[in-house]
Design goal:
Elements: E1 10-12, H1 17-24, E2 31-33, H2 38-42, E3 51-54, E4 60-65, H3 74-77, H4 82-94, H5 110-127
Parallel strand pairs: 1-2
Antiparallel strand pairs: 3-4
Length: about 130
């Protein structure tokens, strides 16, 4: 839908560019790698794939939802992408958001915050050569 002024940007939550590269092969939209996992903290993402809809005014119009943009993970999730893609097409072409688009990003619960902090500390220790501490 690039001709309809629509852009997809993928963000891989990973530290290893080589691990991401095979998934990005033949993809025609930008694929970024978030080695610091900022996206997961900013948007309260706990599962992947997760989709966030952002409009042309940089507003989040549909917060994080576990909806695939392809059928790559159908075997794992049991979710096909066509229903989600139809919602995207309806939004882009008609300006109509799905009924569940008005929910807000849910804050991470205390256990998720703790998990994110442990991850950050372990990553920092590992990068600093402190494998035992990590």
């Amino acid at each position: 839908m690039a001709d309809e002024n629509f852009t997809v940007i993928a963000v891989a939550l990973d530290e290893n560019l080589a691990a991401v590269a095979p998934f990005a092969e033949n993809i025609t939209y930008p694929v970024l790698v978030d080695t610091e996992h900022q996206m997961s903290e900013l948007y309260a993402i706990t599962n992947v794939p997760t989709v966030v809809w952002i409009d042309e005014d940089d507003r989040i119009v549909r917060p994080n939802a576990m909806e695939p943009g392809s059928d790559m993970f159908t075997e794992f999730t049991g979710i096909k992408c066509e229903g989600h893609m139809e919602q995207v097409r309806t939004w882009i072409r008609n300006g109509v958001l799905p009924d569940d688009a008005d929910h807000e990003v849910q804050a991470l619960d205390p256990d998720e915050v703790t998990a994110h902090l442990h991850f950050r500390l372990a990553t920092h220790a590992r990068r600093g050569g402190l494998a035992d501490a990590a």
